[in-house]
Amino acid sequence: MSFSRRVSLQWIPEQVDPEESTSTYVITSPNDEFVDIRIYSTKYPYTKEKQEAFDKVFQWGITGVEEPIEGTSRVNFKHEVSTTEVIESIRTGKLLEECRGEPDVGDFSNIEGSEDRRETGSMVNFETGRKTDYIEIWRSLDPINHTPHKEVREPKETTDIPKVLVMEVNQVGFQGKLVRLGNWVQALVLNRSTKEIHIIRYHFDTLLKNWDRLIQYAGIDFPTDFAGNVGESAMVSNINWICKEKV
Protein backbone atom coordinates (compact mmCIF):
# COMPACT_ATOMS: atom_id res chain seq x y z
CA MET A 1 0.00 0.00 0.00
CA SER A 2 1.14 3.55 -0.62
CA PHE A 3 0.11 7.18 -0.68
CA SER A 4 2.17 9.09 -3.23
CA ARG A 5 2.42 12.59 -4.63
CA ARG A 6 4.02 13.33 -7.97
CA VAL A 7 6.77 15.90 -7.52
CA SER A 8 7.55 16.51 -11.17
CA LEU A 9 7.10 15.37 -14.77
CA GLN A 10 9.70 15.78 -17.51
CA TRP A 11 9.19 14.91 -21.17
CA ILE A 12 12.37 13.63 -22.83
CA PRO A 13 14.02 15.22 -24.78
CA GLU A 14 11.62 18.17 -25.23
CA GLN A 15 11.90 19.49 -21.68
CA VAL A 16 15.25 20.51 -20.26
CA ASP A 17 13.88 20.96 -16.74
CA PRO A 18 11.20 18.99 -14.88
CA GLU A 19 7.99 20.75 -13.90
CA GLU A 20 4.68 20.03 -12.21
CA SER A 21 1.45 21.67 -13.35
CA THR A 22 -0.88 19.36 -11.42
CA SER A 23 -1.77 18.15 -7.96
CA THR A 24 -1.31 14.42 -8.51
CA TYR A 25 -1.98 11.88 -5.78
CA VAL A 26 -2.12 8.09 -6.08
CA ILE A 27 -3.71 6.05 -3.28
CA THR A 28 -2.96 2.33 -3.44
CA SER A 29 -4.42 -0.33 -1.14
CA PRO A 30 -2.60 -3.35 0.38
CA ASN A 31 -4.01 -5.46 -2.48
CA ASP A 32 -2.71 -2.96 -5.07
CA GLU A 33 -6.07 -1.40 -5.98
CA PHE A 34 -5.48 2.25 -6.86
CA VAL A 35 -7.11 5.56 -7.73
CA ASP A 36 -4.85 8.12 -9.46
CA ILE A 37 -6.17 11.70 -9.74
CA ARG A 38 -4.27 14.46 -11.59
CA ILE A 39 -5.93 17.88 -11.33
CA TYR A 40 -4.37 21.08 -12.68
CA SER A 41 -2.84 23.09 -9.85
CA THR A 42 -4.63 26.24 -11.01
CA LYS A 43 -7.97 24.48 -10.38
CA TYR A 44 -7.10 22.90 -7.02
CA PRO A 45 -8.94 22.67 -4.68
CA TYR A 46 -12.09 22.26 -6.77
CA THR A 47 -15.56 22.41 -5.21
CA LYS A 48 -17.56 24.48 -7.70
CA GLU A 49 -21.27 23.75 -7.96
CA LYS A 50 -21.26 24.47 -11.70
CA GLN A 51 -18.60 22.18 -13.10
CA GLU A 52 -16.30 23.13 -15.94
CA ALA A 53 -15.36 20.86 -18.85
CA PHE A 54 -13.41 17.89 -17.54
CA ASP A 55 -10.26 18.47 -19.60
CA LYS A 56 -10.08 22.07 -18.37
CA VAL A 57 -9.84 20.86 -14.77
CA PHE A 58 -8.08 17.48 -14.89
CA GLN A 59 -5.08 16.11 -16.73
CA TRP A 60 -5.98 12.49 -16.02
CA GLY A 61 -7.95 10.20 -13.74
CA ILE A 62 -7.40 6.44 -13.49
CA THR A 63 -8.64 3.48 -11.49
CA GLY A 64 -7.00 0.10 -11.68
CA VAL A 65 -4.65 -2.46 -10.20
CA GLU A 66 -0.87 -2.33 -9.87
CA GLU A 67 0.85 -5.48 -11.14
CA PRO A 68 4.58 -5.69 -10.27
CA ILE A 69 6.46 -7.49 -13.05
CA GLU A 70 8.34 -10.33 -11.39
CA GLY A 71 12.12 -10.13 -11.45
CA THR A 72 12.16 -6.47 -12.53
CA SER A 73 11.70 -2.98 -11.08
CA ARG A 74 8.78 -2.40 -13.45
CA VAL A 75 5.09 -2.10 -12.61
CA ASN A 76 2.16 -2.59 -14.97
CA PHE A 77 -0.65 -0.21 -14.08
CA LYS A 78 -3.68 -2.12 -15.33
CA HIS A 79 -6.34 0.50 -16.09
CA GLU A 80 -10.01 -0.15 -15.39
CA VAL A 81 -11.24 3.40 -15.97
CA SER A 82 -9.05 5.95 -17.75
CA THR A 83 -10.46 9.40 -18.42
CA THR A 84 -8.24 9.85 -21.49
CA GLU A 85 -10.08 6.91 -23.07
CA VAL A 86 -13.44 8.42 -22.11
CA ILE A 87 -12.51 11.77 -23.69
CA GLU A 88 -11.32 9.96 -26.83
CA SER A 89 -14.61 8.04 -27.00
CA ILE A 90 -16.59 11.28 -26.76
CA ARG A 91 -14.40 12.99 -29.38
CA THR A 92 -14.49 10.19 -31.94
CA GLY A 93 -17.85 8.57 -31.24
CA LYS A 94 -16.12 5.21 -30.84
CA LEU A 95 -16.96 2.67 -28.16
CA LEU A 96 -14.88 2.85 -24.99
CA GLU A 97 -13.44 -0.57 -25.80
CA GLU A 98 -12.11 0.82 -29.09
CA CYS A 99 -10.29 3.64 -27.31
CA ARG A 100 -8.11 1.53 -25.03
CA GLY A 101 -4.63 2.95 -24.59
CA GLU A 102 -1.37 1.04 -24.67
CA PRO A 103 -0.16 -0.76 -21.52
CA ASP A 104 0.92 1.66 -18.79
CA VAL A 105 4.26 0.33 -17.54
CA GLY A 106 6.67 2.30 -15.37
CA ASP A 107 10.23 1.43 -14.35
CA PHE A 108 11.06 2.55 -10.81
CA SER A 109 14.45 3.32 -9.28
CA ASN A 110 15.88 5.03 -6.22
CA ILE A 111 17.44 8.49 -6.40
CA GLU A 112 20.83 8.83 -4.75
CA GLY A 113 20.68 11.21 -1.78
CA SER A 114 16.88 11.39 -1.84
CA GLU A 115 13.93 9.47 -0.44
CA ASP A 116 11.94 10.18 -3.61
CA ARG A 117 11.61 7.61 -6.41
CA ARG A 118 12.13 7.96 -10.15
CA GLU A 119 9.74 6.45 -12.69
CA THR A 120 10.68 6.20 -16.36
CA GLY A 121 8.74 4.99 -19.36
CA SER A 122 6.82 6.32 -22.34
CA MET A 123 3.26 7.57 -22.68
CA VAL A 124 1.23 10.02 -24.74
CA ASN A 125 2.22 13.64 -24.10
CA PHE A 126 -1.03 15.42 -23.18
CA GLU A 127 -0.02 18.56 -25.06
CA THR A 128 1.38 17.08 -28.29
CA GLY A 129 -0.63 13.85 -28.55
CA ARG A 130 2.59 11.94 -29.34
CA LYS A 131 4.01 9.01 -27.41
CA THR A 132 7.04 10.39 -25.58
CA ASP A 133 9.61 9.21 -23.05
CA TYR A 134 9.14 10.66 -19.58
CA ILE A 135 10.66 10.91 -16.12
CA GLU A 136 8.34 11.25 -13.14
CA ILE A 137 9.51 11.85 -9.56
CA TRP A 138 7.28 10.45 -6.80
CA ARG A 139 7.23 11.11 -3.06
CA SER A 140 5.72 8.67 -0.54
CA LEU A 141 3.61 10.40 2.12
CA ASP A 142 2.21 9.49 5.52
CA PRO A 143 -1.52 8.81 4.95
CA ILE A 144 -2.32 9.47 8.61
CA ASN A 145 -0.35 12.64 9.39
CA HIS A 146 0.00 14.31 5.99
CA THR A 147 -2.52 17.15 5.62
CA PRO A 148 -3.46 19.61 2.85
CA HIS A 149 -1.37 22.23 4.66
CA LYS A 150 1.58 20.22 5.97
CA GLU A 151 3.56 17.66 4.00
CA VAL A 152 4.57 14.63 6.05
CA ARG A 153 6.66 11.95 4.39
CA GLU A 154 6.08 8.26 4.89
CA PRO A 155 7.95 7.19 8.06
CA LYS A 156 10.70 4.61 7.72
CA GLU A 157 9.24 2.68 10.63
CA THR A 158 5.81 2.95 12.23
CA THR A 159 3.41 0.96 14.37
CA ASP A 160 0.42 3.00 13.21
CA ILE A 161 -1.93 1.01 10.98
CA PRO A 162 -3.90 3.26 8.61
CA LYS A 163 -7.55 2.71 7.89
CA VAL A 164 -8.09 0.96 4.57
CA LEU A 165 -11.28 0.92 2.52
CA VAL A 166 -11.73 -0.19 -1.07
CA MET A 167 -15.19 0.02 -2.62
CA GLU A 168 -15.95 -0.94 -6.21
CA VAL A 169 -19.01 -0.08 -8.28
CA ASN A 170 -21.07 -3.22 -8.86
CA GLN A 171 -23.79 -2.09 -11.23
CA VAL A 172 -24.47 -2.39 -14.95
CA GLY A 173 -23.81 0.87 -16.78
CA PHE A 174 -21.41 2.25 -14.18
CA GLN A 175 -17.76 1.62 -13.41
CA GLY A 176 -15.53 3.00 -10.69
CA LYS A 177 -13.60 2.63 -7.49
CA LEU A 178 -13.01 4.32 -4.13
CA VAL A 179 -9.77 3.85 -2.17
CA ARG A 180 -9.19 5.18 1.33
CA LEU A 181 -5.84 5.00 3.10
CA GLY A 182 -5.53 6.63 6.51
CA ASN A 183 -7.17 10.05 6.42
CA TRP A 184 -7.22 10.34 2.63
CA VAL A 185 -9.71 9.06 0.08
CA GLN A 186 -10.05 9.34 -3.69
CA ALA A 187 -12.73 7.95 -5.97
CA LEU A 188 -13.68 7.99 -9.63
CA VAL A 189 -16.95 6.81 -11.18
CA LEU A 190 -17.88 6.65 -14.86
CA ASN A 191 -21.43 6.53 -16.19
CA ARG A 192 -20.75 4.44 -19.29
CA SER A 193 -23.98 5.52 -20.99
CA THR A 194 -23.62 9.29 -20.65
CA LYS A 195 -19.78 9.32 -20.32
CA GLU A 196 -20.23 11.49 -17.22
CA ILE A 197 -17.24 11.39 -14.86
CA HIS A 198 -17.44 11.87 -11.09
CA ILE A 199 -14.30 12.46 -9.00
CA ILE A 200 -13.58 13.22 -5.35
CA ARG A 201 -10.54 13.73 -3.15
CA TYR A 202 -11.20 14.21 0.56
CA HIS A 203 -9.04 14.56 3.66
CA PHE A 204 -10.47 13.64 7.06
CA ASP A 205 -9.92 16.43 9.59
CA THR A 206 -9.27 14.61 12.86
CA LEU A 207 -9.93 17.76 14.93
CA LEU A 208 -13.24 18.72 13.34
CA LYS A 209 -14.19 15.06 12.74
CA ASN A 210 -15.36 15.64 9.19
CA TRP A 211 -14.22 15.34 5.59
CA ASP A 212 -12.49 18.31 4.00
CA ARG A 213 -13.60 18.23 0.36
CA LEU A 214 -10.57 19.11 -1.74
CA ILE A 215 -12.07 17.87 -5.01
CA GLN A 216 -15.81 17.63 -5.48
CA TYR A 217 -16.27 17.14 -9.22
CA ALA A 218 -19.30 14.97 -8.79
CA GLY A 219 -23.06 14.91 -8.98
CA ILE A 220 -23.27 11.83 -6.78
CA ASP A 221 -22.38 10.80 -3.23
CA PHE A 222 -19.76 8.21 -2.30
CA PRO A 223 -19.54 5.52 0.43
CA THR A 224 -16.60 7.18 2.22
CA ASP A 225 -17.83 6.05 5.65
CA PHE A 226 -18.94 2.52 4.78
CA ALA A 227 -19.45 0.61 8.05
CA GLY A 228 -19.99 -2.90 6.69
CA ASN A 229 -17.61 -5.76 6.02
CA VAL A 230 -15.72 -7.10 3.02
CA GLY A 231 -18.15 -8.61 0.54
CA GLU A 232 -21.08 -6.51 1.73
CA SER A 233 -22.63 -3.80 -0.40
CA ALA A 234 -24.11 -0.32 -0.08
CA MET A 235 -26.47 1.65 -2.31
CA VAL A 236 -25.41 5.31 -2.58
CA SER A 237 -27.00 7.76 -5.04
CA ASN A 238 -28.70 4.79 -6.72
CA ILE A 239 -25.33 3.16 -7.42
CA ASN A 240 -24.47 -0.18 -5.86
CA TRP A 241 -21.01 -0.53 -4.31
CA ILE A 242 -19.32 -3.65 -2.95
CA CYS A 243 -16.55 -3.66 -0.35
CA LYS A 244 -13.35 -5.36 -1.57
CA GLU A 245 -10.94 -4.42 1.24
CA LYS A 246 -11.29 -3.01 4.73
CA VAL A 247 -8.96 -2.61 7.70
UniProtKB/TrEMBL annotation:
InterPro entries: Hri1 (IPR031818), Hri1_N (IPR038744), Hri1_N_sf (IPR043047). It is found in: Cytoplasm; Nucleus. Its main location: cytoplasm. It holds the Pfam family HRI1. Signal peptide: none annotated. It comes from the Eukaryota. One of its GO terms (cellular component) is nucleus. The keyword Cytoplasm applies. Keywords: Cytoplasm, Nucleus. Belongs to the HRI1 family. This is Protein HRI1. It comes from Hyphopichia burtonii NRRL Y-1933. The lineage of its organism: Eukaryota, Fungi, Dikarya, Ascomycota, Saccharomycotina.
